[in-house]
Amino acid sequence: MLEKAINGSKIYWGWIAFLLLLMSIGAACYWQQLSHGLTITGMSRDVTWGFYIAQFTFLVGVAASAVMLVIPKYLHNYQKFGKILILGEFNAVAMVILCLLFIVADLGSPQRLMNVLLHPTPNSVLFWDMVVLNGYLLINILVGWVTLEAERKQVAPPKWIKFFIYLSIPWAVSIHTVTAFLYCGLPGRGYWLTAVLAARFLASAFAAGPAFLILVTYIAKIFTGFDPGKGVLSTLGKTVVYAMCVNLFLLLCEVFTVFYSQIPSHMAHLQYLFVGYHGHGVLVPWMWSAMIMAVVGILILIDPKNREQDNLLIIGCLLIFIGAWIDKGLGMIGGGFVPNPLHEITEYVPSQLELGVSLGIYATGFLVLTILYKVAIGVKQEIE
Amino acid sequence: MKTQRRNFLKIAAMAVLGWGVRPASELMAAGGGTASEGLLFASRHKVHAGPNTLTASRWAMVIDTAKLNEKVMEDIVHTCHSIHNVPTIPGNQNIKWIWETHMDHLFLEDLHEYQPEAGAKSALALCNHCDNPPCVRVCPTKATFQREDGIVMMDFHRCIGCRYCMAGCPYGSRSFNFMDPRKHLETTNPDFPTRTKGVVEKCEFCAERLAEGKMPACVEVSEGALAFGDLADPESEVRKLLAERFSIRRSPTLGTKPCVYYLV
Ligand code: SF4
Ligand code: SF4
Ligand code: SF4
């Protein structure tokens, strides 16, 4: 089926060339990082995780979103999602690859990466994160490829694949839960030391992930004429808006707990993020933009009539997606380190080279996504 | 068959609970006693002792804040950093094994504004060699590990530079080599390894000196402000100091059981 990826229009090849260009920029920046070390980033002794780990955390959520198609289709027999299910699975493949690339980019000694396997350490959550991420990658490659192959031959998919489809449901939950567990359970980091962190991660994932899927499906529709079927995307939009409501609710739970208890080490981080702390507050405008985007996105999408209109659905999804990205891709990790446990404030802003490396990684992920979507949509159009 | 299966289930259950469950051999409750057992997986490593090696069941340090002054603290920091090839790097990507900081940063919850000199006074911060160290718990490669005598050590050659241990340590005791540290060394002590970029490092309670029968360097130059000894031995200097004077530890409510004590 891969041959579908090498027959494309000028626009397709132009896009691929553009991504390759961004990838080479990223590679050049990463070369700088390899030779000079992580000193090229904006990270410091106090803020030891930055943009890379934040992107990984956010993208795990986007990857987990495939389950929002698998559950209705297989557990509730909602056949309409059948048509875009493969897009969800291939999206998960691309996103997990992005996650893994961001983790590797963040390592100080990437040449020793294999030490995680050579000295498996079950008491480290990072070990389990590696296990579940790679497992999820394999499951989605397998399920996506086998079902697509069957579709192409116009036969029913083999029975054994059902097992992996059902397995993918708890597994998707696990990748985001384990990722949240990386943060919660660390003493002295008040912002992360909360039992709702995993729940919040899942809620924001099930908002941002499907929102992303809706957006890329529209893009695919524009360029290939692929028709996801009537009402599919607006139904998925329902998931987006409800998940975002839950996410905001959980945030309010957090705010209440922290500020009613008045424990300084827990209040400090939220204060830093939303109103600034001792005169420091680079993230304040970002966090408020994120909140406004989330609320406006919810107001737009909560009305079923709005979800039926392509333009409003796109705008709503875009707002919610960007809002969730700011919250997790900037605030969650940076805000957790500031102020540090000694109550010292060191702010963090990603450096240009750091952003360059990230750009290259994103381009790599989109290249994988483009190729997989090209194949999937090509097969679908062939059999029609 | 049946018992085999039961044993297997038991082991599996223990494995799942793993890092949360620690045997209740509380150190202090036993009036010293031996080091408590480590995490199920992050088990403690044997100490290889030579003929001169100083040994203990549980090494600990006592810092007398009344005896610290600017000069002593400077000497201590300088001595530790120079013999351990700790580079002097300006900015916030620096490396610190032991450093001077305000008392109110060290003891966020214990001091108040009406104490004499609270806040103005400084003391030394270093790795606490916690008895229940979160840095060991989170490390995915066992590059950070704990010895049976309580010292939390680092294997610089195994560390992948993920910096999870830095997120885990609630005392800011660890530093990461963001850049090549060798470029920032004016002189090098050939008896101690230098590090490379991309690994974490911290104070190791001078394990390399203990192996040769010597006390930690900072203790030697501290003019009596620092004491080092076996917490399990009631006759040791540290136990005597702790019995005579009032002492506090950094963030004890976090459950990490720091083994650096401050006399106030
Ligand atoms: S002070 Fe920090 S680095 Fe040292 S043992 Fe405790 S947690 Fe680990
Ligand atoms: S940075 Fe090194 S020592 Fe710290 S957790 Fe990672 S591998 Fe372990
Ligand atoms: S015990 Fe040794 S390594 Fe630790 S601070 Fe003192 S001199 Fe430095």
TrEMBL record, chain A:
Sorted alphabetically, the keyword list is: Cell membrane, Membrane, Transmembrane, Transmembrane helix
Q: Where are the transmembrane segments?
A: 12-33, 53-72, 84-105, 125-148, 160-183, 195-219, 240-263, 283-302, 314-339, 359-379
The protein's predominant localisation is: membrane
Q: Which domain of life is it from?
A: Bacteria
**Record Gene3D superfamilies:** Formate dehydrogenase/DMSO reductase domain
Recorded hits in InterPro entries, A to Z, give: DsrP-like, NrfD-like
Instruction: Answer yes or no on keyword Membrane.
Output: yes
Q: Which Pfam families match?
A: NrfD
Tell me what topology the record assigns in the membrane: Multi-pass membrane protein
Subcellular localization(s) per the UniProt record: Cell membrane
Family indicated by similarity: Belongs to the NrfD family.
**Mind telling me which PANTHER family this protein's record contains?**
POLYSULPHIDE REDUCTASE NRFD, PTHR43044
**Protein name listed in UniProt:** Molybdopterin-containing oxidoreductase family membrane subunit
What organism, scientifically named, is this protein from?
Desulfomicrobium macestii
From TrEMBL, chain B:
One Pfam family per UniProt: Fer4_11
**Record domain 4Fe-4S ferredoxin-type: where:** 150-179
Among its keywords, does the record have Iron? yes
Has the keyword Signal been applied to this entry? yes
SUPFAM superfamilies listed in its UniProt record: 4Fe-4S ferredoxins
- PROSITE patterns assigned: 4FE4S_FER_1 (PS00198), 4FE4S_FER_2 (PS51379)
Which interval of the chain is the signal sequence? 1-24
Specify the domain of life of the species encoding this protein: Bacteria
Which keywords, in A-to-Z order, does the entry hold?
Answer: 4Fe-4S, Iron, Iron-sulfur, Metal-binding, Signal
Q: What is this protein called?
A: Molybdopterin-containing oxidoreductase family iron-sulfur binding subunit
List the source organism.
Desulfomicrobium macestii
Q: What is the lineage of its organism?
A: Bacteria, Pseudomonadati, Thermodesulfobacteriota, Desulfovibrionia, Desulfovibrionales
